[in-house]
Amino acid sequence: MEIDPIAHIKGCYPEKFGIPRQPSLVPEAEATIIFEKPYRHENFIRGIEAHSHLWLTFGFHQNSWHEGQAMVRPQRLGGNKKMGVFATRSSFRPNGLGLSAVKIKRVDYERVEIIISGHDLVNGTPIYCIKPYIPYSDSILDATSDFAEEAPPRFNVRFSDEAEKTLTILTGRYPQLKPLIEGVVAQDPTPKFHKDPERIYGVLLYEFNIRFKRDPLDEMGGFLVLSIERDLK
């Protein structure tokens, strides 16, 4: 069976680094589902606003799976323990398909677009199918997961004076930028094997490079956002 994308994602994550490892962890993350030409007709989405959330079947188009690679190292386990790929949510998997539940923010029938939030998808992600999330059947209250029983911890995020000044300038055009930065950095996107507390990281959100490091004033390992710079790539 061959399948073609019905849509693609245009949102706040230009690259993979910094994207939450699961949907809904950063509710401020917004994106637009842009339909490909054969499906760019309002009848394809007629009535979809009756639902609050959607299931998106998508492709990990920036990853590749090597045939025979049966074991992966889940980040949730620190990247040190191997598990079978089908026992994890790893993005490196046969067929390269993923599944995300996202919230509908708005439906634009004129442009035939769906604005969503709480997503975990890099720009350009191909969407292969869209289905409504049905609470009575999709929410399994007694489900368990021994190695991922709860959401990952969130760390404190503090902004430098320079970063706060930049946010003040950008607030009019990007009112959600500060909570988006807080949500992404609080998830600790840094590699687990990096131990240097002075190391400076950069994560791209929209067209901005968010530079941050461990906060020397936070004994619990929080982060300090140093600057917000327009990415000139």
Describe the structure.
This protein has 233 residues and is mainly β. It has two domains: 7-138, Elongation Factor Tu (Ef-tu), domain 3 (Beta Barrel), CATH 2.40.30.70; 157-230, YaeB-like fold, CATH 3.30.2310. The chain is built from three helices and twelve strands; from the N terminus they run E-E-E-E-E-E-E-E-H-E-H-H-E-E-E. It has helices at 135-138, 161-170, 177-186, and strands spanning 7-11, 30-35, 53-59, 71-72, 83-84, 97-108, 113-117, 126-132, 157-159, 201-205, 208-214, 223-230. It has a six-stranded antiparallel beta barrel. Strand 11 and strand 12 form a beta hairpin. The longest helix is centred in the C-terminal third of the chain and has 10 residues, at 161-170. It is globular and about 55 Å long. The protein starts with 6 loop residues before the first strand and ends with a strand. The relative contact order is 0.21. The mean pLDDT is 93.
CATH T-level topology of the largest domain: Elongation Factor Tu (Ef-tu), domain 3
The total number of structural domains is 2
SSE ordering:
EEEEEEEEHEHHEEE
CATH C-level name of the largest domain: Mainly Beta
Number of distinct helices: 3
**Relevant CATH superfamily of the largest domain:** YaeB-like
Report the sheet-strand fraction. Answer: 25-35%
Secondary structure class reads: mainly beta
Biggest sheet character = 6 strands, antiparallel, barrel
Helical percentage: 10-25%
Name the poorly predicted regions: none
* Spatial sequence of strands, sheet with the most strands: 1-2-7-6-3-8
Q: List how many beta strands DSSP finds.
A: 12
Form type: globular
First CA to last CA: what distance?
A: 38 Å
**What is the average of the pLDDT values?**
93
The Rg value, from CA coordinates, equals 19 Å
- CATH-defined architecture of the largest domain: Beta Barrel
